[in-house]
């Protein structure tokens, strides 16, 4: 593929190598060390967060986040249906039951209307997972009062949204805990990794304890609780520290890519840019379009672009449509069908790699417009 979806982008300055070299030179390869501590401190400072725990993935962070919020066997957890499976698989790890909630059309995130319907049937869920999909904030102004009324703790899945803001506050800070991912395709990467943002030292200590096999503080290996091997390694945290130094640059480039598509698609009656939220500054991790007024199907356009060596993919297939979750309850904001299914069937994630020249982004936009004009 010549023009791709996001791939890793190390700093031109080689910051990551310096931190890794230090880990090598001091033989501090495993398990913990300065890079892990400093990566957490630097992230806390950047975001204005209270405490952070560096973990092996975003999925592991969601798992321990749910555990921290008290989710147990048989509990109900509300989760946005339109998301990646990493958001909701951890509900099953806890032995709890996901109940899926539709999206609003503007942001693509949790629909306040559907959420209210879900509360009518399930007034006491143990937690709610809200996602800031593709880097666009959820509609917190409307969601938070509904959730507060029921006193449900919130896990904010900001895996795709690092560096984005809602009402001037960084995403990841809107829940009772927040989750970041440093997976290979994310805005910054450690190859694989994640972070759980929590509110105090006590919570942090507990999550660190669970993530290191719940080992008691004594010389021999003593265990009073089930533990996990979820801590981030010192080498990978070194990559994260280097990447964090260029995060703002990456966000700026993602926004330029989005603005380039937006300008090109202005006036094209077949395309809407997807992912809007008032009072927000999305990080534009992925630029996504929705097709309208055309008989061209998203998959047909994806195939055409693929033949032209342009990598795209459909939007996330909603979780309530997945065979593995077929028995789970789902609340739509509509009478017939659902908004998230409509988004899935009409939307395409476009190349948004920060290494891509804006001329290539223009080329992709032209391919799309020409195809739609010829075949609609
Ligand atoms: C919305 C969302 N949630 C959770 C995850 C899980 O993160 P990880 O891949 O680091 O486990 C991802 C991405 O990979 C994601 O996009």
Please give a structural write-up:
The chain is α/β, with parallel strands linked by helices. It has two domains: about 15-245, Aspartate Aminotransferase, domain 2; about 250-375, Aspartate Aminotransferase, domain 1. It has helices at about 15-25, 35-45, 60-70, 90-95, 110-120, 140-150, 200-210, 235-245, 245-265, 300-305, 340-345, 360-375, and strands spanning about 50-55, 75-80, 95-100, 125-130, 155, 165, 170, 175-180, 195-200, 270-275, 280, 290, 315, 330, 345-350. It has an eight-stranded mixed beta sheet, with helices on both faces. It has a four-stranded antiparallel beta sheet with strand order 10-12-15-13. The chain has a three-stranded antiparallel beta sheet with strand order 7-6-11, with no helix packed on it. Helix 4 links the parallel strand 2 (about 75-80) and strand 3 (about 95-100). Helix 1 (about 15-25) runs antiparallel to helix 8, helix 2 (about 35-45) packs parallel to helix 8 and helix 9 (about 245-265) packs parallel to helix 12. The longest helix has 19 residues, at about 245-265. Bound molecules: pyridoxal-5'-phosphate. Pyridoxal-5'-phosphate (PLP) binds near residues 83, 84 and 86.
